[in-house]
Design goal:
Layout (H helix, E strand, L loop, with lengths): L32 E7 L20 H5 L5 E4 L9 H10 L5 E5 L2 H6 L6 H11 L6 E7 L6 H13 L7 E4 L8 H9 L3 E2 L1 E3 L21 E5 L25 H18 L1 E6 L7 H11 L9 H4 L13
C-alpha cells in the first residue's frame, strides 16, 4: 500500500550510520539505498581538481561514475537527447548507476505542459536506453507557472503521463503548496522534488521547508541560491574549483532528513549543484560523512598524473 504524503517534520534528531563499502565509492545503508551525485558531470571547473587535467571530455562520465552512483542530467532540459547518446551513457556506467533527466524546456517552459504529446514522445524515445537506470524524469516548472493559470494544465499532464517511467515534479512557486496538489502527485506516484534554494543567510533553516512525500522514492536537489550564480548581465560570479564549506549545519540537517526518508520510502536520490557552496564533489563528500558513510574522491596523483616533470600539488 502506498504511503500517505507526509508533511514536513518539525524536529530532527542526530543519527549516525556505517556499513561496508559499496559500489561507486558509496556505502549503502542497511535498509535503503541513498544515491548521491552532482548536477551534471561536464563542468570544466573540475579539471585539475576532480578530473585529471588531460582527461578527454568524452571520458568524464565513466570517470565520474567511479566515484558517485547517480547524476542529474542538465543537458536534456535544453534539447532532446539522441538515443545513441543515452545508450552510450548507459554503457559506460556501472549497473547500479542512476540518472535523473530533466524534461525539456520546450515541454515545461515553452508549451507550459500543454499540447506536449509529440515532444514528450520524442523525449521518452531519447531516454529509453536509460530506462533501467533512471532515478526520475524531472519536470521543472518555471517561477511564473502558477495554480491560478496552470493548475488544469498540470492535472491533465500528470494524468496522461506514460507509465513505466519514474516521474518527479519541481515547483518554484510556493502557491503550489496545497493539499490537493500533494494528493494529485501522490495518487499518480509522482515525486514532489525537494529543492533547497536557500541563501547562505538562511542556510541553517534548510530541510525544514514544505517537503511532502508523494511517491515510493524521493528526489532531493541541493541547489543553493540561484541569485548568487550570475551577475545581472548573465556572466558567472564564481568558478567552482573548491568547496566553500559554508553550509555545515544545512548539510547536517539534510543528512538527518535523508536518512529518515530512506527508512520510509527506500530510495532517495540526492543531487548537489556547484553553487550550493562550491565544488559539488567536495560538498557530497561532506554530506556523505554526515550520513555515516564514506565517499572517496580522486587522489592528487590521479588528478595530476606525472608527465615527466614531477608530481604537481592539487592547487598548483
Amino acid at each position: 500500500m502506498k504511503k500517505r504524503a507526509r508533511l514536513p517534520e518539525q524536529a530532527v534528531s542526530h543519527c549516525t550510520g556505517g556499513g561496508a563499502g559499496g559500489p561507486c565509492g558509496v556505502n549503502p545503508p542497511d535498509t535503503a539505498k541513498i544515491h548521491i551525485g552532482t548536477c551534471a558531470w561536464t563542468h570544466d571547473d573540475w579539471r585539475g581538481v576532480f578530473y585529471p587535467e588531460h582527461l578527454p571530455s568524452s571520458e568524464r562520465l565513466a570517470f565520474y561514475a567511479r566515484w558517485f552512483d547517480s547524476v542529474e542530467v542538465d543537458s536534456t532540459f535544453y534539447h532532446i537527447p539522441a538515443s545513441h547518446v543515452t545508450a552510450h551513457w548507459a554503457e559506460v556506467t556501472p549497473p547500479g548507476f542512476r540518472f535523473s533527466c530533466k524534461v525539456p524546456r520546450e515541454i515545461t517552459h515553452e508549451r507550459k505542459l500543454r499540447d506536449v504529446d509529440e515532444p514528450l514522445a520524442a523525449f521518452l524515445h531519447g531516454v529509453e536506453p536509460l530506462r533501467e537506470k533512471l532515478a526520475c524524469l524531472l519536470v521543472q516548472t518555471p517561477w511564473w507557472f502558477s495554480p491560478r493559470h496552470d493548475e488544469h494544465a498540470l492535472r491533465d499532464f500528470i494524468r496522461a503521463l506514460p507509465s513505466g517511467f519514474p516521474w518527479a515534479v519541481e515547483f518554484r512557486d510556493e502557491a503550489w503548496h496545497l493539499p490537493r496538489i500533494v494528493h494529485l502527485l501522490e495518487h499518480h506516484n509522482v515525486a514532489w522534488a525537494w529543492n533547497d534554494l536557500s541563501p547562505l543567510a538562511e542556510a541553517d533553516a534548510a530541510a525544514f521547508g514544505f517537503f511532502p512525500q508523494t511517491a515510493d522514492f524521493a528526489i532531493v536537489r541541493l541547489m543553493g541560491d540561484p541569485e548568487t550564480k550570475y551577475f545581472p548581465d548573465g556572466s558567472r560570479r564564481h568558478h567552482y574549483a573548491k568547496s566553500g564549506g559554508l553550509r555545515a549545519q544545512s548539510l547536517e540537517n539534510w543528512a538527518v532528513k535523508i536518512r529518515q526518508t530512506a527508512e520510509a520510502v527506500g530510495n532517495v536520490f540526492v543531487s548537489v549543484n556547484n553553487h550550493f557552496e562550491g565544488c559539488a564533489p567536495f560538498t557530497l563528500r561532506e554530506l556523505a560523512q554526515r550520513l555515516g558513510r564514506e565517499v572517496k574522491l580522486p587522489s592528487d596523483a590521479e588528478v595530476h598524473p606525472q608527465e615527466g616533470r614531477g608530481q604537481l600539488g592539487l592547487w598548483e
